[in-house]
Amino acid sequence: MREVANANRKSAPGTSDSGQLAVAISGMNKWFGAFHVLRDIDLTVREGERIVICGPSGSGKSTLIRCINRLEEHQEGTILVQGIELSSDLKNIDRIRSDVGMCFQHFNLFPHLSIIENCTLAPIWVRKVPRSEAEETAMYFLEKVKIPEQALKYPGQLSGGQQQRVAIARSLCMRPKIMLFDEPTSALDPEMIKEVLDTMIELADDGMTMLCVTHEMGFARQVADRVIFMDEGQIVEENVPSEFFGNPQNDRTKLFLSQILGH
Amino acid sequence: MAHSAFVRDGLIAPKPPPMTEVGAIGWMRANLFSGWLNSILTLASVAGTVFVFYELLPWMFQSSWTANSVAECRAAIAGAHGDGVNGACWAVIRERYLQLLYGFYPANMYWRPNLTFVLMLVALSPILFPNLPRKMLWFSAVYPFLGYFLLWGGTIWLPISILLGFVVGYFLIALNSARMGLLFGVISGAAGTVIYWIYIASWFAQVAHDLIPIGLTEVESARFGGFMLSTIIGVTGISCSLPIGIMLALGRKSDLLIVKSICVGFIEFIRGVPLITLLFVASTLLNIFLPPGTNFDLILRVVIMVTLFASAYLAEVVRGGLAALPTGQFEAADSLGLDYWKSMRLIVLPQALKISIPGIVSTFIGLYKDTTLVSIIGLLDPVGLTTSIRADSAWNGIVWELYAFVAAVFFVFCFSMSRYSMHLERRLQTDHN
Ligand SMILES: Nc1ncnc2c1ncn2[C@@H]1O[C@H](COP(=O)(O)OP(=O)(O)OP(=O)(O)O)[C@@H](O)[C@H]1O
Ligand SMILES: [Mg+2]
Question: Which CATH architecture describes the domain B96-105+223-425?
């Protein structure tokens, strides 16, 4: 098995060399109106690290990773991505977004564009890559997710698993430094889950920095450097997978794990 | 239990379906006589159609094309088809169709509107059919100025000089945004263009014309009329109202409070006021607000009002399309680092407009038909012209023939728009083909 990254639990933000940090969140709070969704979040992710976030529904997992590319705005605390602080500065936001790929539960492919156009759009318009080069890159990544033969089809003609793999390829075409996954397999049938997870495992083996919200505990065991358990907007427990699954400390974690692994 | 087991050891070959399910008989059974209610409706519609044609066809065909007045016409029909036959007097169309098409445009210059119309089709084709060469779009961009020159005449230097305004703006943007940032560049470019248009353009046209006089005989707006006028107002209104409507719809969904309030206020005001009121404002009140002596063409004023009116409706149609788009599309565009305008142009609008095609085309068709309202403020649209033709003593008493002709021409235009929109919907369909 992979060598587990040395424990860096609760590494205080700002103390470590920021060149090494992909994401540094400290003292972050977020409210939806009066509802306090994220409370005092401290989290650092080093480059190449793979983090799995789990927790009960409504605990704020999606909101947390959506804050990292500013799909949601946080109200307190700081978020540094690749050393750039997320503030209301639109330039910074666009810069961070083009370096951070994201995969959604419902794929969100662009239905009016063919698969290859989905993959080349952002490189051409954001990165200003010439079309032919963008298409080459797109084919490279479509081959990597094992569906090059679908390049000229439209998203509506693909199965869910294929669509999610296209979504991953689309993000990869921007050559992101960090990938965010928000329950990428939870809208899929069991046999499609495997093809998407295989793609993600391959991505992890290539050394991509990944933050995945997922309930696929097998994936967490195999790939994650750290597992984070969230409840009611807080990080309740954070540990290397072997410890997290073998020896959970918090009662809520134990309850959650018994529910999710119990059947 | 064990005896109920069953294993098939050969597959059943497909058999042809029974006669009653396929072919003409099957189709009629399924579509026309599927139940007693459907059968009654079928028979009633057939009877109704037969009755209408039985009454209408003799009127249409036992007609006169050659007479020079109503009385001659009646006599000719009575002579040819017997006394008491009620036939159409198409002669009025033969005699007056040029007027219905061109209004009082000088007859020796009909080639100008004709050429403008043909060039309009050329200019529209690359916009309507994307498989045509993209270079043709340059012609589409220049066409409005060319069309203006051909129709109204005057010196060619005026439209050229106005076109030059865009060149001025372009150079200002290119120069200043390189030195002082994009925002300043755009502002200076827009301001420079407007200043050029107001203070320099007409002077430049004058000077150029004195040097090299090229031009066509001027035709005043008062002589424009008929379908030519409807088409000028309709086509200009349609092509200007779509971009304005889209901007209003985006503005209404914007986070910027001021932009949003202006858009909402504009849309609600325009939608709350009848078009006729706006046309009256255009024809009378606007003169009061404009500085005395400004000669602001009536057709131009009407085009502006019609455009504003249609764009308010279009804004709401497009907003419906924007609302129908899943938020995931906006988020995916954001997450790829596309900025607001790029995500609107590449992701959001193509899909929202596709959803709104039926509503947009309905608005266009409505706009085109509403151009007949300009007769109220004294412009000679086709319907207004029928009134003046009927006032002529030779054709006094003619009603249906004129209206039938006007209706038929409008139908051709509106029906083509409708067919085009259906073609567009099919072409843009990407879900399962
Ligand atoms: N836009 C919003 N406005 C108001 N409340 C919201 C919004 N988005 C999420 N919430 C609330 O914030 C809480 C956290 O939501 P979030 O989507 O982050 O949960 P989650 O952990 O991802 O849950 P799930 O496993 O169901 O996806 C939930 O209670 C949800 O109702
Ligand atoms: Mg979620």
Answer: Orthogonal Bundle (1.10)
